[in-house]
Amino acid sequence: MRNPLFLMIALFISFSSFSQSPEEMKAWESYMTPGEEHKWLASMNGQWTATVKQWMDPSKPPIESKATTENRMLMNGLYQESSHRGNMMNMAFEGRSITGFDNSKKMFVSTWIDNFGSGIMVMEGIFVEPYRVLVLEGTMVDPTTGKDLKVKEVMTFVSKNSYKFEMYMDMGGAQIKTMEINYTREK
Question: Where are the beta strands (DSSP E) in 89-132?
């Protein structure tokens, strides 16, 4: 395996050998500079407590549990890492998401991993300003079929100290609510 420093130097030399116009340089600078959307993500940094409701069967009452979340910005404020811990189905649960705003696509992008699966959920979406709602849509693997399953997350911001997260999955041609989490900022 090659030395990572060697690879970084080789990559820098190969990129620097190409001449870029001022417009191209400006585009790269804009792409890597945190904007208002990144500042908004950063406003959610800190410790949160969560009340979790999960529906395994939509015709039955939800399973309820408690969890904690810590949010922090990474990489010069471009991405927010959220670390989640709780108990789900009588087992310790841990999950992480990375969320950012892609300055080029003008969309939020997000990934999710947890200890209840070996796949990565990938999502993208928009913030609907008048309603204070972030809607992300994407896919995850359905472990029962091995095929992609459409998912949607809706985050509704109630105040600077509370928000609601809802998760929906496409099942049998219908979008079914499978989870609701109500977050409160720890003071």
Answer: 91-102, 107-114, 121-128
CB neighbour class for 46 (10 Å; exposed up to 12, middle 13-18, buried from 19): middle
Residue 97's nearest CA partner among 120, 77, 126 is: 120
Smallest CA-to-CA distance from 79 within 60, 100, 97 is with 100
Computed from CA positions of residues 174, 179, 182, 185, in that sequence, does the dihedral angle turn out positive or negative?
negative
For 27, phi then psi, to 5°, come to: -60, -45
Three-state secondary structure call for residue 85: strand
> 7-47: per-residue pLDDT in tens?
666 666 656 556 677 787 787 778 788 999 999 999 999 99
As to burial, measured by CB atoms within 10 angstroms (0-12 exposed, 13-18 middle, 19+ buried), residue 144 is: exposed
The neighbour count for residue 176, using CB atoms within 10 Å, is: 13
Contact predicate 131/152, CB 8 Å: no
How much is the pTM? Answer: 0.82
- 134-184 residue pLDDT tens: 999 999 998 889 999 999 999 999 999 999 999 999 987 889 999 999 999
Q: Which residue has the tokens 């670390």?
A: 83
